[in-house]
Here is the input.
Amino acid sequence: MNLQFSRRDFLTTLTASAAIALPWKDRTLHADENDSMSYDVIVVGGTPGGIAAAVSAARLGRRVVLVERHHHMGGMTSSGLGKSDIEHREMIQGIFAEFIGRVRQHYVETYGADSEDFALCRDGYYFEPSVAEAVFDQLVAEQPTLTVMRGHQLESVLQESGTVQGVIVRNRRTDELITMRAAVVIDATYEGDVYAGAGAEFRLGREARDTFDEPHAGVVYFDYQNQKFLDGTTGEGSEQLPAYTYRLCLTTDPDNSHRLITPPPNYDRNRYTGYFDDLRAGRLAAPKSYKPGRGYNAAHFDTLVRVLSVTDIPNHKTDVNMNPRPLAFPFAEQNAGYVEGDWTKREQIETDLRNLTLGLVWFLQNDAEIPQAHREIANQYHWPLDEFVDNDHFPFQLYVREARRLVGEYTLTEHDVTQSSASATSGRFDDAIAVGEFPIDSFPCQKRQPGDTIVLEGYLGMLDYITRPYQIPYRIMIPQTVDGLIVPVAASTSHVAYSSIRMEPTWMALGQAAGVAAHAAIREGVQPRDVSISAVQQQLQADGQVIDLPA
Here is the structure.
């Protein structure tokens, strides 16, 4: 298959109109209202997990509709997160491996197997956002029984007697309300919006340490360099969530550069001047442990550009993360009110975080107090003209690292994902449907507090821990009290465990399992909680999914 393309061929310019919605808790309608479209499976959320769910169900012959609020598919993977966070590649296969294989094929055919660009794609695991989106678009377009509805946002959840039976969505361009029904609904949103609208129980915030006896739970100061707890750690529960940011794609190609020529609205340099203290204190120096793929660039060490984590990807572009380790990190607490806010509230927070991000780049490139040599480095990076062409070259998806977490039939905890305490499981489950393998990694939850000298509160930088793969049970996707619903993304875990499974490759594996389980529930005439797990597992393995741990 030839994956060469013009990026603009895959990016249709659309203008979205704002829609005001009621709070989530007020959006449940009865199943006898507003009859309209009928499907076997409805997937809400065009995230990578949602795409995998929709494709896997459609391949099994189910009539599926995939609903995405944005006009683009792929969530973070096609919105700036240009590298796949995975430590044990052999543990996540299936549809994710297909995605990676198609990305790899694109770079071979476009640049050649001996090219630098192919080397930078790391066998398909690193990619430009537009390439990721094009591959996702191909995956869904190949399914004749799969309908995709871009630019449609969730408004209401249809249910009867505790069973979800469909959703009502709003066309963001026309304001039209559309009612859809299905035997199974899959909530693949980052926020857990469908199950919240259905009245399922969920967790929001961080559990206390004693809730599940998790060492790293609750309010925590964790020295990421020496892997030890610091003064100020209380283990108390907290409503504050890990910071939300945007993941950027920047280019070093002057001919493909869209440059900032003015600061963003409400720019205030004082939001970033704390980084000067980080520079003086050595917090922008080289890391103790230097590992590839972590956004380390030696040319940035001991400069203010180190506030960004920059990784080269193909076609003179970079994956840019916000470095959470400096104490001036300005993004913590800026997501307050997002999860349970209506669409208007969420859009305002998205705009504020976009401007905060643009302001940081403007500050690094232009502020007179920044050393000239640092500004020259920062001015090597600009917004690519051929990415996000209908959004002023800025990513469309906010990086929602954690929002609601379902209260499901099983709650995955730190003990399950680390297998390191006396009360830990073996990391094996009879109902395993996927394997997790990434270390615990969570962004700060609070801004710099008086006395903070090493790390911000809530940051769990455990990337240098030895990571052992662990099985993920099907039960974390099943609400305790609501039927007709499967949840592969905002699933049932503690905050600490979520900090491990919250990777797009893992969510794609869970999404694939959700699609297979939805098919099995319809075929067997049962609720998703009652499907034959062995049948689901057999189908997943036949489709290339890994569910067993290494011997």
About this structure: The chain has 13 helices and 21 strands.
